[in-house]
Design brief:
211 residues, Jelly Rolls, 4 helices, six-stranded antiparallel β-sheet, 9 strands
């Protein structure tokens, strides 16, 4: 996937919420985080290796950025990717879990769908402020993560609930059926694909929260 600002196409403004959630404006959130960090659009663009005009178009909702650009934005703003899709909820240094038990109802999950992706993530843990992130993942038929994969600090465990998921970790492939689980070091390039005819569903846990 290209690291330049070429190849981005117009997309819908915002990102879908959970099963019962509202839409969140991705561009406005990027701008809010940029302003909070006292960065100009030009400075953010320079850190991401893209043009200032691309940052401006993202912030005004005129285009939907590629996954590569989303990852660059998150790194430059020092937040998890998920923080770009909602109110600042990232994991601060030395974060501790909530003091009281927290229930997340099925229709109240925070949803996240990355630009140009047919993979839906729904947060099962209440937020990203604790030490553990748990999410419900649905992969549409034929969908797959970028070839270069994701890379971030921590450890992950995926349990396939429905369908068959092909995981790629550091160049090795692992095919998981319903009931199978895979645990790996998140600092290794990793991704997943759904080769089946139906939607694949998995439960994922990672520590620390970093998506």
């Amino acid at each position: 996937m290209s690291g330049t600002d070429g190849g981005d196409s117009p997309g819908q403004k915002g990102s879908p919420g959970g099963a019962g959630g509202s839409r969140i404006d991705f561009g406005e959130q990027v701008r809010a985080l940029r302003v909070a960090r006292r960065l100009t659009a030009a400075a953010l663009a320079q850190q991401c290796g893209v043009s200032r005009s691309l940052v401006s178009q993202i912030e005004t909702g005129r285009i939907s950025p590629s996954l590569d650009v989303v990852r660059r934005l998150a790194a430059a703003l020092a937040v998890p990717i998920a923080a770009l899709f909602g109110p600042p909820d990232g994991t601060p240094e030395g974060a501790t879990p909530e003091a009281r038990p927290a229930v997340v109802r099925r229709d109240e999950r925070k949803g996240l769908r990355l630009p140009r992706s047919r993979i839906m993530y729904e947060l099962l843990s209440p937020n990203l402020r604790g030490r553990l992130q748990v999410q419900w993942v649905e992969l549409a038929p034929g969908e797959q993560a970028p070839h270069e994969g994701f890379v971030h600090a921590g450890e992950e465990c995926y349990v396939v609930i429905e369908g068959r998921v092909r995981f790629r970790v550091a160049g090795e492939e692992y095919v998981l059926n319903a009931g199978d689980a895979l645990t790996f070091d998140s600092s290794l390039p990793h991704g997943a694909s759904n080769d089946g005819p139906g939607t694949a569903v998995a439960l994922a846990a990672m520590t620390p929260p970093s998506f």
